[in-house]
């Protein structure tokens, strides 16, 4: 099987819809951040494509960092425990941070990261998530910027994976149930 499209049940957001939403979000963020010289911190690996697009849509003087945390493994449900597997490489004391995430689900990851960055002395920590799945929230997290509010379905594409695959689909979609068979 070489064609990933055949594993997709339906497309939730097309490449064009994603681009247009990010364009608007970037303009909104620019107004808030233009005097703050923010540090954008992308949560690897799912947010890597969104990061590349949102920082270009928000033409503010800024720099970028990457953090990796343990997440779902190869399944589709959260373990609750969050562990940093790759940390940021600079002092963030007094900085205005914008955490760039692919999807806010249980809230475990962003709840943990917000606390972590505040403890390290950040002046502020805002959250920008491409998608918000509010139906499954376990920890209270209020995102500052949301691309799309999504239903409780497992989504792939545009950086998001199932078993590390499908990240390079240009759109966001839902997999056919048979793809999960055996899990
Ligand atoms: P929590 O539950 O900590 O989840 O808010 C955030 C992380 O969980 C992953 N996640 C998904 N990944 N499709 C994915 O590919 C999904 O529908 C999905 N829901 C949650 C994601 O890695 C995110 O960073
Ligand atoms: Mg993932």
What this model shows, in words?
The protein has a single domain, classed as Rossmann fold. It is 22% helix and 28% strand. The chain contains 3 helices and 9 strands, in the order βαβαβββαββββ. The strands form 2 sheets. A 6-stranded mixed beta sheet has the order 4-3-2-5-6-7. α1 (15-33) packs across α2 (48-57). The longest helix has 19 residues, at 15-33. The model has no long low-confidence stretch (mean pLDDT 94). The site of xanthosine-5'-monophosphate (XMP) has 19 residues, from β5, α3 and β8.
Radius of gyration: 16 Å
The helix/strand order is EHEHEEEHEEEE
CATH fold naming: Rossmann fold
Q: How many beta-strand segments?
A: 9
| Content-based structural category | alpha/beta
Strand order of the largest sheet: 4-3-2-5-6-7
Helix content: 10-25%
Assembly state: single chain
Spatial shape: globular
Distance between the termini: 19 Å
Keywords:
six-stranded mixed β-sheet, binds magnesium ion, 183 residues, alpha/beta, binds xanthosine-5'-monophosphate, 28% strand, Rossmann fold, 3 helices, three-stranded antiparallel β-sheet
